[in-house]
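Case study 2.
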Amino acid sequence: MTGRRALTVQLLLIVLVAVNLRPAIVAVGPVLTEIQDEFHLSGTAAGALTTLPLFFFGSYGLLAPFLRRTPRSESLLIGSMVILIGGLLVRLLDAPVALFAGSLVAGIAISIGNIAMPAIIKRDHPNSITTVTSIYTVAVTLGAATSSGMAVPVEQALDSGWRLPLGLLVIPAALAALVWLPRARRAAHAARGAPVVRPSRALAAHVWRSRLAWQVTAFMGLQSLLAYVTVGWLPTICQDRGMAEAPAGYVMALSSLVQAFAALSVPVLGRRMRDQRPLVVATVAASLVGFAGIAWAPIGSVWAWSVVLGVGQGLGFATALSLLGLRSRDARVAGQLSGMAQGVGYVIAAMGPLAFGALHDATGGWTVPTLGAMGVGLILGFFGWAAGRDRMVTAPPEPGPAGPEPEPEPARTAKRAPTESNAC
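Prediction:
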């Protein structure tokens, strides 16, 4: 297989997993009103339906340093898809407990894919982290856009309830698991006789003490919080402002589609910048304007404001994922930073839909929740400005005879990146 063909196959494998890492959550938004009516859920409980899996989106990353051995990345991705299938099927059962339990299992499954993929990108594509990450991000957002945009049309075309469009998500997850299986077998065969790789608790502790790692984590968490507020509540806001159910789903799909194109622009823009701080500024500005327009501008203009919001969230998501590789010295650090940033970050993100729904219940409107989201956007800018500086989280020195310190790897710019390992 030629190098170009091998690269194409690798990218397709990444895309097949990526398109499954959001639909289990975002497809709920367009049919959330139906689910609320069937199970008599309050706004807070409906927000919890989106929040619960987010609490577990980074759960594997927090658990990984305590495992006896580190599973191969290929095996992790297949396991992620199999667990996801189980969660999707459980969620279809006719009981509120099953609805929430299935969402929890889906969140755990997605956490495994979330953590494994940045390390694979750092390992297999060290010289094109931003480009490959952007392709991965585009696939994630296109999966989200397709699932949210098609949920109601599929339901109406087949004259079914909300369970059918959510159940159909099993098909791409099963396909991804099957396609990755040969590569997992080859990796297992190649690893026979190799020493068992065990997680490094010293490395984990080193990363968790890094100020830069916490800045990346805060940026990851806060941009995800705003994204999942949008995923969970944008269709509902549009419906409350007078829009029909199907068009409200299309607004969400449009925003997600724009995110894909915005994410794809990150490597192009990044080549013209010394660091990622301009991307952070653009992310914050577009997010603030987008939230304000959706909440307060005339409802007929909501399509334009959803585009602005999609630009901000696409830039933010691609930048956050790129930072996991750009701020890491090697694949081991990338894995630890990914686990920390997504493990803690998605716990932060999980507060968003729940708090947004609770504020709406308490005030009876969308003004106070929107002001809260805009306040989060300003805090996002603070941490993003720090995380966007051109520097790296290093690995701790290996035990052994003292020797000269290795020179830090350059960042993805012409300038050599300073390292950062100060305790937080």
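Residues 13-183+200-395 form a domain with the Growth Hormone; Chain: A; fold (CATH 1.20.1250.20).
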